[in-house]
């Protein structure tokens, strides 16, 4: 679709937004939201007709791109047939979505509890773990994001937790492995894995194993930096959890449904959790949907004991119809396989080539269509391009990088001193090359801040 400029309409949209919309994570008078006129595939555009290649996939959820005709048609058909219905009933779209998801989750995660999004999935997974074990505490990594609802934000490790953390949520944080900025002073992946596992086991020991209900981990952390775990780490966590009767929860809200080049990131590591949370890519974000995939043992806990939780829109028919269509499209078009090939053959090599030319790139890491560039002031010292949780003038180098990317028609995903390369899983080679060329130009701006 060719964008048609309509600045007057854009001004009206912007004015209504500024008058009435209260935006998340923002000081309301300090933001300037772009008015979006439309989107298709890997692109969106504004009312001036400027088009952007979306290297963020929305918030890493449009795994099959914007406006896929088969998913749009499925939503329209479901709306005409049965637009909504209460969650206590068996509804075809809901049943079929649950079946298709359960077929793809690892191990015996065959029961699906639907939510409206990822944070609610984490909330309910935590509740299930606590009720199943009868224990109060949940362990979570510092470099993590699990959502903005009450329990989920306390489980989160990044600074968004700070204003919301009352220190009374039964959450204990620990360090997960990250060799580039190792909290354990490791010099190899093997050493990082061993020391991180020992640290986790020590944390459990000092907290009291009989008090710990669950360990929750993003299989591959998303917003926190896309740090793929070293070989053996997740298997080691699984073994520790089994030894102490602790529930292992893997958060695949961002990493799931093809993003890492597998249906679920857990597939890369041969590990089956007791609970797995999902959202985002399950239906490419077309209608809000999330959920928890539940193991047989935990499902059995609630076979004759009511589960004390639910949502008015759990398994909403429109959202589930979108999920059915999305999963079927992913199968028909081999989008999971495409994501794996794109990462191995295009994104990975291209980003490593950029790292050879741009001194601002400290590390390249990722898999599938799930990559991060760690931007630094100095490669030798690994000093971040901007300080941790920088704002205002301290964040100027990253702000300049972001502005340069947008000037070249690329909408970047930026968090702290990183830019993430997370386009739709079905982005074409030509589109990817266009985005990488814009990224190359923007990185030259970041290079100006290196020493």
Structure notes:
With 451 residues, the chain is an alpha/beta fold. The protein is built from 13 helices and 16 strands. The strands form three sheets. It has a seven-stranded mixed β-sheet, sandwiched between helices. The radius of gyration is 22 Å and the shape is globular. The model has no long low-confidence stretch (mean pLDDT 97).
Spell out the key features of this protein:
single chain, about 450 residues, alpha/beta, 7-stranded mixed sheet, 5-stranded antiparallel sheet, 13 helices, 16 strands, globular
In short:
This protein has 451 residues and is an alpha/beta fold.
Blueprint (SSEs and pairs):
Blueprint: H1 7-20, E1 36-40, E2 43-46, E3 51-54, H2 57-60, H3 69-81, H4 92-104, E4 111-115, H5 118-133, E5 137-141, H6 150-155, E6 171-174, H7 189-207, E7 212-218, H8 233-244, E8 247-251, E9 275-278, E10 290-294, H9 296-301, H10 317-332, H11 335-357, E11 361-367, E12 370-378, E13 383-384, H12 396-407, E14 410-411, E15 413-415, E16 418-421, H13 429-447
Parallel strand pairs: 3-14, 5-6, 5-7, 7-8, 8-9
Antiparallel strand pairs: 1-2, 2-3, 4-10, 9-10, 11-12, 12-13, 12-16, 15-16
Helix pairs in contact: 3-10, 4-10, 7-8, 11-13, 12-13
């Amino acid at each position: 679709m060719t964008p048609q400029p309509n600045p007057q309409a854009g001004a009206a949209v912007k004015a209504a937004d500024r008058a009435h919309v209260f935006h998340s994570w923002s000081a309301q008078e300090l933001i300037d939201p772009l008015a979006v006129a439309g989107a298709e595939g890997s692109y969106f555009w504004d009312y001036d007709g400027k088009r952007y290649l979306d290297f963020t996939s929305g918030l890493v959820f449009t795994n099959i791109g914007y406006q896929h005709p088969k998913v749009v048609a499925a939503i329209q058909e479901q709306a005409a047939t049965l637009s909504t219905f209460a969650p206590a009933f068996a509804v075809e779209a809901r049943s079929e979505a649950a079946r298709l998801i359960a077929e793809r989750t690892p191990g015996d995660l065959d029961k699906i509890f639907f939510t409206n999004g990822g944070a609610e999935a984490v909330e309910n997974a935590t509740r299930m773990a606590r009720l199943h074990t009868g224990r109060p505490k949940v362990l979570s990594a510092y470099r993590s994001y699990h959502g903005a609802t009450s329990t989920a934000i306390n489980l989160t490790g990044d600074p968004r937790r700070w204003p919301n953390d009352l220190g009374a949520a039964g959450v204990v944080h620990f360090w997960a492995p990250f060799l580039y900025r190792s909290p354990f002073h490791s010099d190899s992946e093997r050493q990082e894995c061993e020391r991180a596992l020992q640290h986790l086991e020590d944390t459990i020991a000092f907290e009291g194993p009989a008090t710990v209900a669950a360990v929750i981990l993003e299989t591959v952390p998303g917003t926190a930096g896309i740090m793929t775990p070293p070989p053996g780490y997740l298997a080691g966590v699984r073994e520790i959890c089994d030894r102490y009767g602790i529930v292992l929860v893997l958060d695949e809200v961002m990493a799931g449904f093809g993003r890492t080049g597998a249906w679920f990131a857990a597939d890369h590591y041969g590990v089956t959790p007791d609970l797995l949370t999902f959202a985002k890519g399950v239906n490419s974000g077309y209608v809000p949907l999330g959920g928890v995939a539940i193991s047989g043992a935990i499902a059995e806990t609630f076979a004759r004991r009511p589960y004390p939780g639910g949502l008015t829109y759990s398994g909403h028919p429109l959202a589930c119809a979108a999920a059915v269509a999305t999963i079927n499209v992913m199968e028909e078009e081999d989008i999971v396989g495409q994501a794996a090939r794109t990462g191995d053959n295009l994104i990975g090599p291209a980003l490593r080539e950029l790292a050879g030319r741009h001194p601002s790139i400290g590390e390249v890491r990722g898999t599938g269509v799930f990559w991060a560039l760690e931007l630094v002031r100095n490669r030798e010292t690994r000093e971040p391009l901007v300080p941790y949780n920088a704002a205002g003038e301290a964040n100027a180098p990253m702000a300049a990088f972001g502005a340069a990317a947008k000037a070249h028609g690329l909408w970047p995903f930026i968090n702290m001193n990183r830019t993430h390369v997370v386009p739709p899983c079905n982005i074409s080679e030509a589109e990817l090359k266009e985005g990488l060329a814009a990224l190359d130009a923007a990185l030259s701006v970041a290079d100006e801040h290196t020493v």
